[in-house]
Write a structure and sequence with these properties.
By secondary structure, this protein is mostly helical. A two-stranded antiparallel sheet has the order 1-2. The radius of gyration is 22 Å and the shape is elongated. The protein contains 12 helices and 4 strands, in the order ααααααββαββααααα. The two termini are 30 Å apart.
Length: 280
C-alpha cells in the first residue's frame, strides 16, 4: 500500500460538461446535475481527507438516468474509450502511479482504473468520471475490491490520494516456517505501531485481509527465495556476508516502498541467519 499524488484538474465543471455533451437520451437532465455533482465532489474531498467517506451521502437520481445507466456510459464511452473526449485524462490517471505499481498492493503493475467509490446504481455513479475517484490499480486488486462500498470507519480501503503518511512507519512484517524438508514458507502479517492513528490501522488490516495480500506476498516471496537460492548456497558458510547482503536488499526496498513484501522478507531472512546458522 502506498500513496499517489492527488490528480489536479483545472476545471472539473468543464470536464463534466464535455463528457455529458456526448450523451443522447439523458443529456439535458444530466447536465442540470453538474452543480450538484461539483458540490458533492467538494464533500468527497473533505470526507476522504478525514477518512470518513463511509459517511458520504448519495445523490438521488430519477428513473430515466438510472435505467439508461447514464453515468456508466459516461465512463465507458466518453472517458476510457480510445478517441473519446476524456481519453487523455484517462491515460494521465493510468500512468500516475509511481513505477507503475498498484497502490493497493504495491506489487502488481497498473492495468486499469478503479472507481474507489463504485459507479454501480446503489453506489456513487456521480463520481464515475471524477478524477479523485479514479485510482490506477492492477487487475487483481480491482477485481477483489470489486464494487465495495464503505459503511463503517473500520472497514474501508486506504485512499491512495488522501492518506499521505501510510509509509511513515513500518507495519508489514513476515516470519518463516521451516518444513521437515528444510523448505521455508513466508507468512506475512500486519503489526502497526501506536504512532499510526487507530482508524488507519484498522483500514490497513481490513485492506490487507480483503485483498488477500498475505497469500499474494507469500507466493511472491517463495518465488524470490527460489531465485536467490544459488546466492545462499554460495555464501552458506559466510554468515556475516549473507546477513549484510540481505540487510542491504531490505534497506534498498525500504527506501523504495517501506512496506513492501520484499522489505519484510529480506529483513526476516537477515534475522533468521543471525538467530539460526542452519536455517537454510
Amino acid at each position: 500500500m502506498h500513496n499517489i499524488k492527488k490528480p489536479q484538474i483545472e476545471n472539473l465543471e468543464q470536464h463534466l460538461e464535455n463528457c455529458i455533451d456526448r450523451l443522447r437520451k439523458t443529456k439535458i437532465k444530466t447536465k442540470s446535475l453538474i452543480p450538484e455533482i461539483v458540490s458533492q465532489c467538494n464533500l468527497y474531498e473533505q470526507n476522504a481527507s478525514n477518512n470518513t467517506l463511509y459517511l458520504l451521502n448519495k445523490i438521488p437520481f430519477d428513473d430515466e438516468i438510472v435505467q439508461n445507466q447514464t453515468f456508466k456510459k459516461l465512463y465507458v464511452n466518453h472517458m476510457s474509450k480510445q478517441s473519446s473526449c476524456a481519453y487523455d485524462l484517462y491515460n494521465k490517471l493510468l500512468s500516475s502511479a509511481p513505477f507503475n505499481k498498484c497502490p493497493y498492493c504495491s506489487q502488481g503493475d497498473v492495468e486499469e482504473l478503479d472507481h474507489f467509490l463504485p459507479k454501480i446504481e446503489n453506489g456513487y455513479p456521480e463520481f464515475s468520471i471524477v478524477p479523485i475517484n479514479l485510482v490506477p490499480s492492477c487487475h487483481r486488486c480491482n477485481h477483489k475490491k470489486h464494487e465495495f462500498i464503505p459503511t463503517t470507519k473500520d472497514k474501508q480501503f486506504i485512499h491512495p490520494y488522501f492518506v499521505n503518511n501510510i509509509n511513515d512507519y513500518r507495519w508489514l512484517y513476515c516470519k518463516v516456517n521451516h518444513s521437515i524438508e528444510n523448505e521455508l514458507t513466508f507468512i506475512f502479517y500486519i503489526n502497526c505501531p501506536n504512532e499510526i492513528e487507530k482508524s488507519i490501522q484498522e483500514c490497513i488490516n481490513f485492506q490487507f485481509n480483503k485483498l488477500e495480500l498475505a497469500i499474494l506476498y507469500s507466493k511472491n516471496a517463495a518465488n524470490e527465495y527460489a531465485g536467490i537460492k544459488n546466492i545462499i548456497d554460495k555464501y552458506h558458510e559466510d554468515k556475516e556476508t549473507l546477513m549484510q547482503l540481505f540487510n542491504d536488499r531490505a534497506n534498498s526496498y525500504e527506501n523504495h516502498i517501506r512496506n513492501s513484501w520484499q522489505t519484510a522478507m529480506y529483513y526476516t531472512l537477515a534475522e533468521e541467519i543471525e538467530q539460526n546458522n542452519n536455517f537454510i
